Amino acid sequence: MEAITQLQYAFDAPLGLGLLWLAWRTLACQDLFEAVVSFAAFGLLMSLAWVRLDAPDVALAEVAVGVGLTGALLLAALAKLRSSKMNEDAAGQLGKEGSEVGRPQWLPLVVLLSVAAGLGHAVWSLPLYSAGLSPEVALHLETSGVSNPVTAVLLNFRAYDTLLEMVVLLLALLGVWTLGGTARRPEAAPGPVLDTLVRLLVPVLILVAAYLLWVGAHAPGGAFQAGALLGAMGVLMLLAGWRLRTSLMALPLRLTVVAGPGAFVAMAVITLFIEGRLLEYPPQHAGTLILILETVAALSIGATLAALFLGSRPQDLENR
Amino acid sequence: MSAAFAYALVGVGLFSLGLYALIVHAHLLRKILAINVMGSGVFLVLVALGGRTREAQPDAVPHAMVITGIVVAVSASALALTLMLKLVAETGRAELPTHRRE
Amino acid sequence: MTLSEYFSAALLFAGAFFFLAGTLGLLRFPDVYTRLHAVTKADNVGLGLMVAGLTVQAETWTAAGKLLLIWLLVLLTGSTVAHLISRGALRRGIQLWKL
C-alpha cells in the first residue's frame, strides 16, 4: 500500500471510532446537557467525515443545520424543560432532569445486534464499484444550467424532491404554530459583547449567504446552505433579544415563509404550460430559473428555521 | 476494504446504537437525540456507498438526498421538541404515559 | 517538495501543536475559567498558524483573503463565546479556582 493510503487509514480509523464513541456518549450520558453538547461534537465530526468522503455540500449543510440549528433547538428546549420543571416541583431537581438511564435490557439488545448484523451483511455484500446515477448526471450536466452536479440534482433533475422538502419545512412550522407555540422563557438581557457581535456579524452573514447562493452554481454551496446561514443569523438575532416590528410580524413573515414552496409550485405550473411536464426547464433559461428558485428558497428556508427556533406564534407576539 | 465500506459500516453502527437508545430510553429528549443519531447513520451509509464510483467524482444523487434529509431532520426535530414541551406542560413529565410505572 | 511546501507544512504542524496544547489545557485545567482561557487562546493561535500555512499554498489572492476572513470570524466568535460562557458560569456561582 502506498504511504498516502496508509495515512488516510490513520485518519479514517480515529474518525470512525470517534463517531461511534461520541454517539454512545450522547445516548448513554447521565446528564442531558452533556448529552446535547456531545451531540453537537458528534455533528462536527460528521462534517469532517463528509469532507473526507468528498461531499463538501453535505459538510456545509451538516455544520450549519445539523450542528448549529439542531444544537440551538435542543439547548433551547432543554432550558425550557428545566425551567418548567423547576416551576413545578419545588424540591429543585436541578440538573437531575432525565437522568434515569436504565440498565441494558436483553430484548432490545437482541434487536440491536440482529439489526446491526443484517444491515452490516447487506452493506458488505454490495459490489465494490458501482457507478450509481453519476453517468446520467454527467451526461445531462451541460443542459442543466449549472455546473455543480449536486445543485443540478437538487434543483433540476430532482426538483420535485426539493419542492416536497420545502413543503415539509412549512408543515413543521405550521405544526409548531398550531400547537400554540412554546411558553416564553424569561431571558436575560444580552450584554454589550453579544449585542456588538450580532451587529458585526449580521451584515457579514448576509454577504456570505449571498455568496454561497451565487457560487452554488459551480462550486460547493447552494440554496440550502445559504438558507441555513440566514436561519443561523435569525437565531443569533433572536438570542440577542432582537424582535421584528409587529407590523412585519403578520403578513410579511408569513409571505416569506410560504414564498419558498409557492415559488416551486408556481415554477412547476409554468413549466407544465411551457414544456408539457412539471419542473422541466427550457435549457437556455435553466440557469436563470434555477437562480431565481434558489434565491426565494434560501430566504424562505432562513425565515422558517428562525421561526422554528423562536417557537412562538406571530399573533402571540403581536398581542404583547 | 475501501474507505467507502468502512464509513458505511460506521453508519450501520450508528443506526443500531440509535435504535437501541430509542427503544430503551423513556425520556423524550433522549428519544429525539436517538432519532437524530439514527438519521446521521443513514446519511453516512448513503454518502459512503455513493463514493464507490471508479472515477474521482462521487455520485451526486446521494449527496442531494442527504442534504434534503438533513433539513427534513431538523424540521422534524423542531416539531418533536415542541410536542415534548407541550407534553411537559400538560402532564409535568417528559415521558409518554405508558412508560410511567404506576 | 519545494521550499514553500516545506514552509507550509511547518506552519500546519505548528498550528496542530497549538491545538494539542489547547486541548491538553481543556482536559487538565481545574475549573471552567482556566479551561476557557486555554482553549480560546491556544485554538485561535493554532488556527492562525494553520491559516497561514494554507495561505502559502493558496492559488489565488481571493482564496487567501477568504482564509484570512475565516480566521478573523473565528477570533471574533470564539472570544465572544468564551465571554458568554464565563459570564454564565459566574451567574451560576461557579467559583474561581484558588491554589
Mean pLDDT of chain B: 89
Query: Main β-sheet of chain C: number of strands, strand sense, barrel status?
Result: none
Helical content class of chain B: over 70%
Largest sheet of chain B: none
Looking at the overall shape, the CATH architecture of chain B is Orthogonal Bundle
Number of strands of chain C: 0
H/E series of chain B, N to C?
A: HHH
Task: Give the overall silhouette of chain C.
Answer: elongated
What can you tell me about this protein's structure?
- Chain A has helices at residues 3-28, 32-52, 56-88, 106-124, 134-140, 149-157, 159-178, 192-215, 223-239, 246-249, 251-275, 286-310, 314-318.
- Chain A is mainly α and 320 residues long.
- Chain A has two domains: 1-86, no CATH class; 146-320, no CATH class.
- Chain B has 102 residues and is mostly helical.
- Chain B has one domain (3-99): Helix Hairpins (Orthogonal Bundle).
- Chain B contains three helices and no strands.
- Chain C is mostly helical and 99 residues long.
- Chain C is built from three helices and no strands.
- In chain C, α1 (3-28) runs antiparallel to α2 and α2 (32-57) runs antiparallel to α3 (61-91).
- The model of chain C has no long low-confidence stretch (mean pLDDT 92).
- The interface between A and B is large, with 101 and 77 residues.
